[in-house]
């Protein structure tokens, strides 16, 4: 029964997600901000700490002594150095920052992995996923809630096959991550676009017209007066979304809308950290160079206490 209850909740979530909300729905996939703090190294390094460690781990380092912070930072440097050549490049640092910022994704995958790897062989087959997710509910031709689980399963199978690079219908952990979070992988972005278009394209012509675009975000619900943001979205559709001015969005136009080419905050932060720490100016960092600037990367009780003293003096 527990599996069925979970699926019923999932069905309600999907129905609510696909229904027409009165609040604006955001279909656009943006990389999250590295920190909600102001990036001002003249004031403090809080932004850099959040960017390098992730917000929660940054709080942990604030409780450590300088010696403990340096020791832990040294271990992190070993992980960042992907090719083990003794140096950290801006590219390796960018990859680490992106990993730190998206750690919640990997934690989510770890949780789901345990529930789907039924034979505990370190792989998840489509059959395992299907049985763990849908199970005996698929044997019920007329489910009580009336939700079309087979349609959901067909969509899942299509995405699973795309995530499964070698086509054996068995997913490694990386492939399973791509299945659960396709927006994070370049080779999965087309399926994100396709699924979005299928959700919005109510007349099934393979395009998104203006009314479908607005209808996905807003429902009048008896109110003849559209909010200003809806009028703005109509203008956005006509002026920017519909690039070829044919009155509808095709696949490429939809992709440009929901997956814009954003400014790469992780790359900018990586270059900033290298610039500030690269004592010999060779364009890469040794472990010693990173640890020497530990207050920039991770902080400690000492840096946190120092900031408190500054604020106290200003007060």
Automatic annotation (TrEMBL):
Domain EF-hand: 68-103, 104-139, 151-186, 188-223, 265-300
UniProt-listed SUPFAM superfamilies: EF-hand
Keyword Calcium: yes
One GO CC term on file: endoplasmic reticulum membrane
Sample GO molecular function, one term: calcium ion binding
Signal sequence range: 1-19
Key words of the record: Calcium, Endoplasmic reticulum, Glycoprotein, Golgi apparatus, Membrane, Metal-binding, Repeat, Sarcoplasmic reticulum, Secreted, Signal
Compartment(s): Endoplasmic reticulum membrane; Golgi apparatus; Melanosome; Sarcoplasmic reticulum lumen
Highest taxon of source: Eukaryota
Key word Repeat present: yes
Its job: Involved in regulation of vitamin K-dependent carboxylation of multiple N-terminal glutamate residues. Seems to inhibit gamma-carboxylase GGCX. Binds 7 calcium ions with a low affinity.
Subunit composition and interactions: Interacts with GGCX.
Similarity section: Belongs to the CREC family.
Protein name: Calumenin isoform X1
């Amino acid at each position: 029964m527990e599996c069925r209850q979970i699926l019923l909740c999932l069905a309600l979530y999907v129905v609510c997600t696909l229904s027409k909300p009165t609040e604006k729905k955001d279909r656009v996939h943006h990389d999250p901000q590295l920190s909600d703090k102001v990036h001002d190294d003249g004031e403090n390094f809080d932004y850099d700490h959040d960017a390098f460690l992730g917000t929660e781990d940054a709080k942990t380092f604030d409780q450590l002594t300088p010696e403990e912070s340096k020791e832990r930072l040294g271990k992190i440097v070993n992980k960042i150095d992907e090719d083990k050549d003794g140096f950290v490049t801006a590219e390796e640092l960018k990859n680490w920052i992106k990993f730190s910022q998206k750690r919640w994704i990997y934690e989510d995958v770890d949780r789901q992995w345990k529930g789907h790897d039924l034979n505990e062989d370190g792989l998840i087959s489509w059959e395992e996923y299907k049985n763990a997710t849908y199970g005996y509910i698929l044997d019920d031709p007329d489910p009580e809630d009336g939700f079309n689980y087979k349609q959901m399963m067909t969509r899942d199978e299509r995405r699973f096959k795309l995530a499964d690079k070698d086509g054996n219908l068995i997913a490694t952990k990386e492939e399973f991550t791509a299945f659960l979070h396709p927006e994070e992988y370049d080779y999965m972005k087309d399926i994100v676009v396709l699924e979005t278009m299928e959700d919005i394209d109510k007349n099934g012509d393979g395009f998104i017209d203006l009314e479908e675009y607005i209808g996905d975000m807003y429902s009048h619900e008896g109110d003849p007066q559209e909010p200003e943001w809806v009028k703005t979205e109509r203008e956005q559709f006509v002026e920017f979304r519909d690039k070829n001015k044919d009155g509808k969005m095709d696949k490429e136009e939809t992709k440009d809308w929901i997956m814009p080419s954003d400014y790469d905050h992780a790359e900018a932060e990586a270059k900033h950290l290298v610039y500030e720490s690269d004592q010999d100016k060779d364009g890469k960092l040794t472990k010693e160079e990173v640890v020497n600037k530990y207050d920039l990367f991770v902080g400690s009780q000492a840096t946190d206490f120092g900031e408190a003293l500054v604020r106290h003096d200003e007060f």
